[in-house]
Design goal:
- By secondary structure, the chain is an alpha/beta fold.
- Among the domains are: 256 residues, 3-Layer(aba) Sandwich (Rossmann fold); 120 residues, Transcription Regulator spoIIAA; 42 residues, no CATH class; 34 residues, no CATH class.
- It has 26 helices and 22 strands.
- The strands form 6 sheets. The protein has an 11-stranded mixed sheet, with helices on both faces. Strands 20-21-22 form a 3-stranded parallel sheet.
- The radius of gyration is 32 Å and the shape is globular.
- It starts with 31 loop residues before the first helix and ends with a helix.
């Protein structure tokens, strides 16, 4: 086990709360009747969630609820409450310590709207998949309702929706920069990322009698301050256009150090004032990171200046390593949003402890036989790790879970398989996934503690794999073999995302994966084929994909299996021009790929790609008003066309693609043949045209090749027949024949 540069108090070492005498509940209670059955008069903590309550380690409310229960606290669940009044928020009574509010496993807006801002009709985290059971911006709404129900009870917010909105953030749905969700929700504290450490520490301190106002320096938390704390050094990073010569600033801001009231008689305060250093001069200073914070441009500035927004986004991501990150501060009006450094990642024994808690592994019994789609998808899957050091700019995993990989032990994972066998109804012996954010980053981390302690790279694998990164997949390969050997297990699938640029570094792992864990199709995500767009995604080039495909095909053939790769791609990503999408479409056709499910870039809060989308600047490099511009397709029509390039084979896209190709000066790609992208319009019309059945006596308008004769043809044929029979042409048909023809014409 690698020893980290910074350590934290062991997660399970906190003393038990007095209520541990009540023991473990079959399910965390969701009603007063369930509380009565457990002998509880009240809850210590009440978790409010936008998801249905599934007691499974893939659901955040269950993880944190069971963890608090293991430390002796009585935890209740208010799942998917009716937010239109406070009645549902009062159904468990007043919590003794606090409300914990989360929108659920997904951001409520991403859960409700597509990338094209169309309303989704379903919600995978709701019984029967019914949509509309949670409000938009659920964290804000739930938190405010809790305050209305019990105004004096502290409210803690967390989960991915709150985590990605801890500072001012661009909001795609309203097309504006919004304030920190901590301000809008009126909550008292925000926990970001995987919150086990922060929640246990905060809960323990509150149980000891402290108020949230006193808990100002807990890692992984965001709070509201009136003034910055005294005794700190401030790195002023509120601007990008510093003059050529910057002088040191020694005068402090006009702040009274927190908790102190200075008078004219005081010659020297007990707490040293804030020392301010302009950002360009910080490199020459040796600063204590524990007593240093970075001042970001204020909400008022970033909401009006997209360049400052991109600059702020870059700072936030550079301060994401828990071993060297400094606190951040951002002014919102007269208030200060204070973001403490990220939490220290869980060590393997702590991860094991979290996943070994007594989960029922099924939805709460009150749902009876109602199907919850998200549960059906993960009920026999196993999460073996957390975090991602890939740094893909469009993804929010790193912002939420961090770059340091946190892995479970083989023993804990094998124990979970036994738990699944015992608790999941109808288990057939198929483990649907062994993975996490990525399936093959398990146990991979930096080889050098000192390097990791100082590293601020946004990715460990882009533009190339870092020389200090451990890429040995043997622990994962051994895990696969152990799980297949468990009695009663006949199939172990790998369904999580695969980093093929890492996989190719360990051919034995690829062989194991392809031979035993691919059920014919393997999904991977090159995301694009063009270098310029890939550079804005921080994704490897197609050369790595080609290398992996050769290995995949080789090992599939050796295993006697016919298997295929299913690549995923993104349209309309920042940096992606129509020319890039055209080249990607040509690559798809050349390689005989006809994607059915394609995605358009979705600007999620706080991601680097979203900063590009909003600002038109590249935060992967230092941002100035003259720094690199990034083009992003924003117009709905252009986004549709770029998505259409991914589905070049769909006739509904052909007309738009033809028009676009003509505008691009590429008409040679319109027509028929292997070197064409879409068919010509004439052929298109013939393909879509359906023959119409003529009414009695009506001409079909068919061409001369039609098998259906017209009345005029019938008359001419009759004349020709009679001429051949008697050598003369009858002037007119017989009276009887005339009658038949007249009848047909009518």
């Amino acid at each position: 086990m690698i020893k980290r540069h910074k350590t934290a108090k062991e997660l399970f070492s906190y003393p038990l709360y007095w209520a541990e005498c009540y023991g473990i509940s079959p399910f965390l209670p969701t009603t007063r009747e369930e509380m009565d059955a457990l002998g509880w008069d009240s809850c210590d903590v009440i978790i409010v969630s936008g998801d249905a309550y599934v007691d499974h380690p893939s659901f955040g409310m269950a993880v944190l609820g069971r963890l608090l229960e293991a430390k002796g606290y009585r935890v209740g669940i208010i799942d998917q409450p009716n937010w239109r009044n406070t009645e549902d928020f009062m159904r468990l009574g007043r919590p003794n310590l606090y409300f914990g509010v989360t929108a659920g496993n997904m951001d409520s807006l991403i859960n409700r709207y597509t990338a094209d801002l169309k309303v989704r009709n379903d919600d995978a985290y709701t019984p029967y998949g019914v949509g509309g059971k949670r409000p938009d911006r659920a964290v804000i709404v739930y938190s405010q309702r809790c305050k209305e129900a019990f105004h004096d009870v502290p409210v803690m917010i967390g989960g991915i929706e709150a985590s990605l909105r801890r500072i001012a953030q661009y909001d795609y749905w309203s097309d504006e920069v919004r304030r920190s969700v901590l301000i809008d929700s009126t909550a008292d504290i925000l926990l970001y990322g995987n919150a086990e450490r922060a929640m246990i520490e905060v809960t323990h301190q509150m149980a000891m009698g402290k108020t949230l106002d006193e808990l100002t320096d807990i890692r992984g938390t965001t709070i509201v301050r009136n003034t910055p704390p005294g005794g700190y050094t401030e790195i002023d990073s509120t601007r990008v256009d510093w003059p050529g010569k910057v002088d040191q600033i020694y005068s402090p801001y006009e702040y009274i150090p927190e908790g102190k009231c200075q008078t004219k008689d005081e010659e020297e305060p007990d707490v040293m004032p804030i020392r301010v250093i302009p950002a360009p001069l910080r490199r020459g200073e040796k600063l204590d990171p524990e007593k240093t914070y970075i001042r970001l441009p204020s909400f008022e500035k970033v909401s009006k200046d997209p360049v400052l927004y991109a600059h702020t986004s870059r700072i936030l991501h550079l301060e994401s390593n828990p071993h060297n990150a400094r606190a951040l501060i951002q002014k919102h009006g007269k208030k200060e949003i204070w973001v403490n450094p990220p939490p220290i990642p869980l060590e393997t024994p702590e991860m094991d402890g979290v996943f070994d808690l007594p989960y029922a592994r099924v939805p709460h019994p009150k749902y009876k036989k109602a199907r919850i789609p998200a549960y059906d998808m993960i009920k026999t899957s196993i999460n073996i790790m957390r975090g991602c050091f890939g740094g893909c700019t469009f993804c929010s995993i790193t912002e939420h879970e961090g770059r340091v990989i946190q892995s479970r032990s083989h023993e804990s994972i094998l124990n979970e398989i036994e738990d699944i066998k015992a608790k999941v109804p109808g288990f057939t012996g198929h483990i649907s996934d062994l993975g996490g954010p990525t399936s093959n980053m398990y146990t991979l981390n930096c080889n050098d503690d000192e390097v990791q302690a100082s590293c601020r790279k946004l990715s460990c694998v882009y533009p190339t794999i870092c020389s200090n990164l451990n890429t040995d997949h043997s622990p994962t390969t051994q895990l696969y073999r152990k799980t297949r050997a468990v009695e009663g297990i006949h199939t172990v699938s790998i369904a999580s995302g695969l980093r093929y640029d890492l996989a190719v570094e360990d051919p034995e792992y690829v062989r194991e994966l392809v031979t035993h864990h691919v059920g014919g199709l393997l999904k991977i995500a090159p995301e694009h084929s063009e270098k310029d767009t890939l550079s804005k995604m921080m994704k490897p080039g197609m050369g790595t994909y080609d290398r992996f495909k050769r290995m995949f095909d080789k090992y599939s053939k050796e295993a006697g299996k016919k298997q295929h790769l299913i690549p995923y791609f993104i349209a309309a990503h920042p940096g992606s021009s129509d020319e890039d999408m055209l080249n990607l479409a040509v690559w798809l056709k050349t390689n005989s790929f006809k994607p059915d499910q394609v995605q358009t870039f979705y600007p999620s809060p706080m991601s680097l790609a979203t900063a590009m989308y909003h600002s038109g600047k590249n935060p992967l490099k230092p941002v100035t008003y003259k720094s690199e511009d990034v083009y992003t397709p924003k117009d709905a029509k252009q986004r549709t066309v770029q998505k259409g390039f991914l589905r070049y084979h769909d006739p509904s896209n052909w007309q738009d693609l033809r028009n676009t190709l003509i505008k691009m000066g590429r008409p040679e790609l319109i027509g028929h043949g292997d070197n064409k992208l879409v068919p010509a319009e004439e052929k298109d019309k013939q393909i879509r045209r359906r023959p119409q059945k003529a009414k009695p006596g009506q001409s079909t308008g068919a061409s001369h090749t039609s098998n259906r004769p017209t009345i005029e043809k019938n008359i001419a044929a009759e004349k020709a027949r009679r001429k051949n029979n008697n050598g003369s042409v009858a002037a007119t048909p017989t009276k009887r024949r005339k009658t038949k023809i007249k009848s047909r014409q009518q």
